[in-house]
Structures are given as structure tokens and as C-alpha cells.
Design goal:
By secondary structure, this protein is α/β, with parallel strands linked by helices. Helix content is about 50%, strand content about 15%.
């Protein structure tokens, strides 16, 4: 599994912390920007979202001020199931039940320790499948209608 990661200027410092943790876990990381400069978050969400959608099995991490803007933008891309991850329970269940492939976090809403804990939960929690598989398939069908 490869991790595609990106942020806007508000999330740059948090992104650096996450990359360091991923490197310590020997996980391949593709940094899609930004490098601290001011940038519009939909541009970064597009790069990470398209990469994750094109590479099933890979996952993405997007960081902005709240995680909300990144989530909205990334979810416009077919094949992306992005979720704002702000607590351990929701992060676990977005993987177990929704097979989310991109986690979005807020650099202004989460401390560094919590953010890193949520990344670990997101990466280590498998999709449960079963009855949830049909629901994820329904989401994919919705994408095809538009």
C-alpha cells in the first residue's frame, strides 16, 4: 500500500509530522504538495484523489484547516471515498463500514498526537466487507448516475 498525501498551507506542518511517522513505519509515501506556500485546497484534493482512484489498494491523506474542504473536493472524484477523521471511533468505522480510501484531517482542529493516532487507526483498520460491501457498491453506482 502506498500513501498519497497532500495539504494546503494550513496543513503543511501536520503533513510533515505524518510523513515522518509513515517513513518510520516503512510505508511508501507520495507527497503531492504543498510545500508551505499558499495553495487552494481543491487543487491538492484533485491530485491525491485521482492518484488514489487510479491505484486501488492505495490510500490518501489530505490535511487542511478543518479537513472539511478537502473532503468535499476529494469526494467529487469517482472512486474516492473520503472522510473527515476527527476522532478514533469515526476513523475506525469509516474504514470498517465505508471502505474509505482517503482520510481528511484538520490541522487547526486536531493536535499532533491525536492526528498521528488517527492515521494509525486509518491505516491499520481493514474493510469489514459483508453487508457493508453492498452499501459501498451502492455509493459507486451513485457516482455513475452523474
Amino acid at each position: 500500500m502506498k500513501i498519497w498525501i497532500g495539504c494546503d498551507h494550513a496543513g503543511y506542518e501536520r503533513k510533515q509530522e505524518v510523513i515522518a511517522m509513515l517513513n518510520a513505519r516503512n510505508i511508501e509515501v507520495k507527497d503531492c504538495g504543498c510545500n508551505g506556500e499558499r495553495v487552494d485546497y481543491p487543487l491538492i484534493a484533485k491530485v491525491v484523489g485521482k492518484a488514489v482512484a487510479a491505484n486501488p489498494g492505495d490510500r490518501g491523506i489530505l490535511i487542511c484547516g478543518t479537513g472539511i474542504g478537502m473532503s468535499i473536493a476529494a469526494n467529487k472524484i469517482r472512486g474516492v471515498r473520503a472522510s473527515v477523521c476527527a476522532d478514533a471511533f469515526s476513523t475506525k468505522y469509516t474504514r470498517l463500514h465505508n471502505d474509505a480510501n482517503i482520510m481528511c484531517m484538520g490541522a487547526r482542529t486536531l493536535g499532533g498526537g491525536v492526528a498521528l493516532e488517527l492515521v494509525e487507526i486509518f491505516l491499520d483498520t481493514p474493510f469489514e466487507g459483508g453487508r457493508h460491501e453492498a452499501r459501498v457498491h451502492m455509493i459507486t453506482e451513485l457516482e455513475q448516475e452523474w
